[in-house]
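Incident review: delayed structure delivery

Summary: a single-chain prediction request sat in the queue longer than the usual turnaround. Root cause was a stuck worker, restarted by the on-call engineer. No data loss occurred. The affected request and its eventual output are reproduced below so the record is complete for anyone auditing the incident later.

Affected input:
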Amino acid sequence: MSELVLYDFGNSVCCQKVRITLRAKGLAWQAIGVDLFKAEQYDPKYLKLNPKGVVPTLVHDGKPVIESTLICEYIDETFPHAPKLIPADPWLQSRMRLWSKFVDEGLFDGVTEISFSAMFRERMKAMPEEIRQARFRNVGDPRRTDRFKSTYEHGVQSPFVVHAVAAYERAFKLMEATLAEGGGPWILGADPSLADINMMPFAARLDYLGLLDLWTENRPLVQKWWDNACAWPSFRSGLHDLISAHEFTEMRTHGPKIRDGIAAHLATLRSAA
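Output delivered after worker restart:
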């Protein structure tokens, strides 16, 4: 019997991808919480498992696997029973991984900046200066530090938030076209795959912030895809049901505060297209 241990943080979009995948495969795991707001990801013991100091980390029979996109593929390949989340056809595999690239090369930074400008910026403002500066130092990546400082100082007007809005616009524009060409209801056709799982937490965060409709109001196929995702048991048990009432309240309270700014950025992008 394989032992799976997931080092996890509840409202992390990357952890959510992995949890949905585990649920979809019908796997059980032991969860060990890593509190990002207490900087537990920089504990030396954790850094031995994950030198990048990020979550999640999956430990399978004592062997750590890092990077959420790689973890999800590892799970499907290591536990090959149905449902298969990676298609057998190489061309469809390339299409699936296109959505992984959208997430890893644009939406991950994007959702971080949008969430930071809506919620976490308020937490940072309330911190004593020395703790706030320690948080910036603990980011560990100069590029991430620059993004966080910009969003902290300028909020939704940060250029990095504009980049985030543009990344989501590209992704949802392609999703609408892909669903129209393939017939849906899922990105690769009749069944959910890692393409869908990759996107679900990033759509969910916008939805819980009260912002998703800014991208979906004129994209009926994306909206239908999201309705199907919300009804999928693996999504509900791996993501929705594991968010605390406090986290829902925080997102629903702070998201509307940046709605007008996000809408203005979208309008500017679309007028220039």
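Verification: The domain at 90-272 is CATH 1.20.1050.10 (Glutathione S-transferase Yfyf (Class Pi); Chain A, domain 2).
Action items: add queue-age alerting; document worker restart procedure.
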